[in-house]
Write a structure and sequence with these properties.
Layout lengths: L1 E2 L2 E9 L3 H13 L5 E4 L8 H4 L11 H4 L15 H14 L6 E2 L3 E8 L4 E8 L2 E12 L23 E3 L14 E5 L3 H12 L4 E6 L5 E4 L4 H9 L2 H25 L1 H13 L8 H4 L12 E4 L2 H7 L3 E5 L2 E4 L3 E4 L4 E3 L2 E4 L12 E4 L2 E3 L6 E2 L3 E2 L5 E3 L8 H22 L4 E3 L7 E3 L6 H4 L7 E3 L10 H10 L7 E3 L1
Parallel strand pairs: 2-3, 2-7, 3-4, 5-18, 7-22, 8-17, 9-10, 9-17, 10-13, 11-12
Antiparallel strand pairs: 1-2, 5-6, 6-7, 14-15, 15-16, 18-19, 20-21, 23-26, 24-25
Helix pairs in contact: 1-4, 1-11, 5-10, 6-7, 7-8, 11-13
C-alpha cells in the first residue's frame, strides 16, 4: 500500500544474496500474510556468488551446511563450484516466490526510525532517481564486505609494469591466461582457489606469493560417507545425517583446535607434508605463526593445490612485494618473479549493513562501539536485524538461525499486540571485541566495528549447537528486549 506518498511494507530486506533469499523464503513460510520486498543494489540476485567470476570460484564451506536447512543441497559434492551455488540460490528464490519480491538496482543509502509512527523510512538510489519506502521492520542481509571496492594495496612500480594487474573481485571477462606466467599475491581462500584453477586454465606457470603462510587442509570434493548414505537411506534421512555429520565434524575440529592448538598444528602439518614432495620446505610455506582458527582455515578440494605443486606447475614464495618491475614482481629479498599477469588476491574491506546511514528521529546512529544483541540486533535500535554468518563454519548455518529468530520475534509481536522491539543497553555488561578472529580485513576495521558483551545475550558465540538452543528455543521476551 502507499502512505504519505511512499510505499509501505511490513518487512524490508536489504540484499538479495544468500542471506536475503533465505530471509525472504522464511518469511514466505512463517508469515505469508506479511508484505515484504528485497532491495538489491545490483542488477541481479546471488550476491557474492554472482559477483565473483574468477576461475575456480567455489565454496569454502561444505555444501551440506551451506545449503539452507529448509531446502537441502541435493548434490554429492561437499565443495561446489560458484555457478552451481548460484543456480541453487536462484532456484530457491523461485520456489518460495522471493524472486517476485526483489527490486533490482535499489541501493539503500539511509534508514531513519520514526518513534512516533514506529516505522522505518528507507531511502534507496535507483537509475530513475531516489525512492523512499517505509517499513515496520528492517532487515540487513547485505553481508559484511564492500562489493564495489576490494582491498588492494597500491604496489610501488605499478606504472612501470608491462603486464596486466587484476583483482579477483573484478575479474576481467577477456583475460585468457593460456601460456602466461602468473603471480598471485595472497594466501587466503581466494588465492588457494585461483592458483590450481589458473593451471587448469592453461597458465604456463603460477607462483603464489604470500606474505605469511595459511593453514590449509585437503578435503574430498565428494564426501564418500554422504555418497553411501544417499545410496542406502531415504533422501530426507540421508540429508539430515549428512548435515549433522558435517556440523559435528566442524564443531569438534574447531573445539579441539582452540583447546589444544599444538595438537591441531601437528595434525594439520602432517596432512600437508604427506601431500608434498619429500624435502619440501613445509614449515617455510605452510606453517603459520598463529594458532588454528585465529584466522579461517583454507580447504582445497581433493588436494588440488598440493597436486599442482607436486607436478611443478606451482611455486609458493613466502616473502613481501617490494615493487613491481617491468617484467613482474620484485620481492623483499630481491628475487624477481616474472609475470605476464599479477593477481592481487589481497582480500576485501568491511562494510557493515551495506553502508546505509542509520538514524532515529533524524539523529544519526553509529554502529562503532555499539553493543550487539545475540549477534543479530544492535542495542538501542528498534525493529532492526542484521545477518552475519559464522567465521568458523558455514555462513548459512547462522543465517538460517537469524531468520528463524526474526520470524519468532514477528510472531511474538503479533501475539502480544506490540509494534516494536529494541534491545535495552545494559551498562553493567562488559565490552569485548566484536570478533575473536583477526584476519586482515578485521584488523583493518577495528575502529569501525561494534562490540559484543561479556555475557549472554550480548555475547557472540561461534558455536552452532549453542545457538540452536538459544535462537530457536529461548523465549523472545527474555528481559533484555523492550517492547512497545
Amino acid at each position: 500500500m502507499t502512505e504519505h506518498g511512499s510505499e509501505h511494507l511490513d518487512v524490508l530486506i536489504v540484499g538479495a544474496g544468500l542471506s536475503g533469499i533465505g530471509a525472504g523464503a522464511r518469511l514466505a513460510q512463517e508469515h505469508p500474510q506479511r508484505s515484504y520486498a528485497v532491495l538489491e543494489a545490483r542488477a541481479v540476485s546471488g550476491g557474492t556468488w554472482d559477483l565473483f567470476r574468477y576461475p575456480g570460484i567455489r565454496s569454502d564451506s561444505d555444501m551440506f551446511t551451506m545449503g539452507y536447512r529448509f531446502r537441502p543441497w541435493r548434490d554429492d559434492r561437499a565443495l561446489a563450484d560458484g555457478p552451481s551455488i548460484l543456480a541453487y540460490l536462484r532456484d530457491t528464490a523461485v520456489e518460495y516466490g522471493v524472486d517476485r519480491r526483489i527490486r533490482y538496482d535499489h541501493r539503500v543509502t539511509a534508514a531513519d526510525w520514526d518513534p512516533a509512527a514506529a516505522r522505518w523510512t528507507v531511502t534507496a538510489e535507483t537509475p530513475d532517481g531516489t525512492v523512499t519506502l517505509t517499513a515496520d521492520f528492517l532487515w540487513a542481509c547485505s553481508g559484511y564486505y564492500d562489493y564495489e571496492t576490494p582491498h588492494r594495496p597500491v604496489f610501488g612500480g605499478e606504472e612501470d609494469y608491462a603486464g596486466r594487474l587484476v583483482h579477483p573481485q573484478h575479474w576481467p571477462d577477456d583475460l585468457d591466461v593460456s601460456g602466461l606466467e602468473v603471480v598471485v599475491v595472497g594466501s587466503g581462500a581466494t588465492a588457494m582457489t585461483l592458483v590450481p584453477s589458473l593451471v587448469e586454465a592453461g597458465a604456463a606457470h603460477v607462483t603464489m606469493l604470500q606474505r605469511s603462510p595459511t593453514y590449509v587442509l585437503a578435503l574430498p570434493s565428494v564426501d564418500p560417507v554422504v555418497r553411501v548414505l544417499r545410496r542406502r537411506l531415504p533422501e530426507r534421512l540421508s540429508w539430515w545425517l549428512s548435515r549433522w555429520k558435517a556440523i559435528g565434524v566442524a564443531v569438534l575440529a574447531y573445539q579441539v583446535s582452540r583447546r589444544w592448538p599444538g595438537f591441531a598444528r601437528r595434525v594439520i602439518r602432517k596432512g600437508v607434508a604427506s601431500q608434498l614432495p619429500e624435502g619440501y620446505p613445509v614449515d617455510t610455506h605452510f606453517r603459520p605463526a598463529y594458532d588454528p582458527w585465529d584466522e579461517r582455515l583454507c580447504f582445497v578440494p581433493d588436494g588440488d593445490l598440493f597436486r599442482a605443486i607436486r607436478h611443478g606447475d606451482v611455486d609458493v614464495v613466502t616473502d613481501t612485494v617490494a615493487t613491481l618491475t617491468e617484467k613482474g614482481v620484485r620481492t623483499g629479498s630481491g628475487e624477481e618473479l616474472v609475470a605476464d599477469v599479477v593477481v592481487s588476491a589481497t582480500g576485501f574491506d568491511l562494510k557493515l549493513v551495506g553502508g546505509m546511514a542509520l538514524s532515529v528521529a533524524g539523529e544519526p546512529l553509529s554502529l562503532t562501539g555499539r553493543m550487539t544483541y545475540r549477534a543479530l540486533m544492535f542495542a538501542g535500535i528498534p525493529n532492526f536485524a542484521y545477518t552475519i554468518g559464522y567465521t568458523n563454519a558455514s555462513w548459512t548455518l547462522k543465517a538460517d538461525l537469524v531468520a528463524d529468530w526474526v520470524c519468532r520475534l514477528l510472531t511474538h509481536l503479533d501475539r502480544t499486540g506490540r509494534r516494536w522491539a529494541v534491545p535495552e543497553p545494559d551498562p553493567s555488561v562488559g565490552e569485548a571485541p566484536f570478533m575473536d578472529f583477526q584476519p586482515g580485513y578485521v584488523r583493518r576495521s577495528l575502529d569501525l566495528l561494534p562490540v559484543q558483551g561479556d555475557r549472554e545475550p550480548w555475547r557472540l558465540r561461534q558455536n552452532y549447537v549453542h545457538d540452536v538452543r538459544t535462537l530457536r528455543r529461548t523465549p523472545i521476551d527474555d528481559g533484555v528486549l523492550r517492547f512497545g
